């Protein structure tokens, strides 16, 4: 297959390495808003660098992978749809619901495939948790705890473009809550703090957030996130039922130390970031996309899944602003 890659930043560079070494990729064409960066990645992976996204299409690619800046996603998805090409796009489709809906309509009208990059669906721990919940071995699920903690804030310039902590970061947890439990989020009550670095206040964002989610079967979920977890990168989920409870992401690299003498010791090598923690999952989702593009596999994460997670994030943002519970079907949340 001939694959086009648009965007060669941190995640795009990782995708370039995976795609260039994949057995089913015969040629890789890359482009970036920074042409020098695209040329550098091409040199290191054996890909062909071209100056624009239009040139990617001119090279006769069979499918497109989008890893560019968030603001460009919706337009690039539409362009791929109009070209009749399957497309993989890093989340989000867009930073708001109108932009997301417009892009999804283009994909639907074209009859093409859009797979979204919710890589945790390909993580072995989350997949095993999903099986345990669906098998009934935990009994009635009553409590879920989900968290994402970054070791350090992103660059200040990124914050105004990110969509905020709920849409950019916790949206992964919202997707996992839905995917693992098989239930929908009915209501949220969210809050956040901007007491950390001043750049969050200046961007109108928060550096730490918490949300209480009520699922449609009454299960209670807490979802928390922070940009300031100096111990390391920490992504976990705990699921408690009437018979048993399990945890995802608890291992010898989890940056969590027991305060008691009999508890777990400090992690020897805590996870430094998302690429290290979820590297195998990123590889697995691209492999799945190539199979989807060849018609061998049903789409494991289409645009409707991304839309559902975004609706939860939108409800959380409204709840934080107005300091009240918000139902996910309330006007203003989509």
List the helices and strands and how they pair.
Blueprint lengths: L1 E5 L3 H11 L6 E5 L3 H11 L2 E2 L3 H6 L4 E4 L6 H10 L4 E4 L6 H14 L3 E4 L6 H12 L5 E9 L9 H4 L2 H17 L3 E9 L4 H5 L5 E8 L4 E7 L7 E8 L3 E4 L25 H20 L9 H20 L3 E2 L7
Parallel strand pairs: 1-2, 1-4, 2-3, 4-5, 5-6, 7-10
Antiparallel strand pairs: 7-11, 8-9, 8-13, 9-10, 11-12
Number of separate domains: 2
Class from secondary-structure proportions: alpha/beta
The helix/strand series, from N terminus to C terminus, equals EHEHEHEHEHEHEHHEHEEEEHHE
The value of Rg in angstroms is 20 Å
The largest pleated sheet is described as:
7 strands, mixed
Instruction: Identify the strand order in the major beta sheet.
Output: 12-11-7-10-9-8-13
For the termini, the CA-CA separation is 38 Å
Helix content: 25-40%
Per DSSP E runs of 2 or more residues, the count of β-strands stands at 13
CATH architecture of the largest domain: 2-Layer Sandwich
Number of helices: 11
What would you give as the CATH superfamily of the largest domain? Dihydrodipicolinate Reductase, domain 2
- Whole-number average pLDDT? 95
Share of β-strand residues: 15-25%
Within the CATH hierarchy, at the fold level, what is the topology of the largest domain? Dihydrodipicolinate Reductase, domain 2
Classified by CATH, the class of the largest domain is Alpha Beta
Query: Outline, from the CA principal axes?
Result: globular
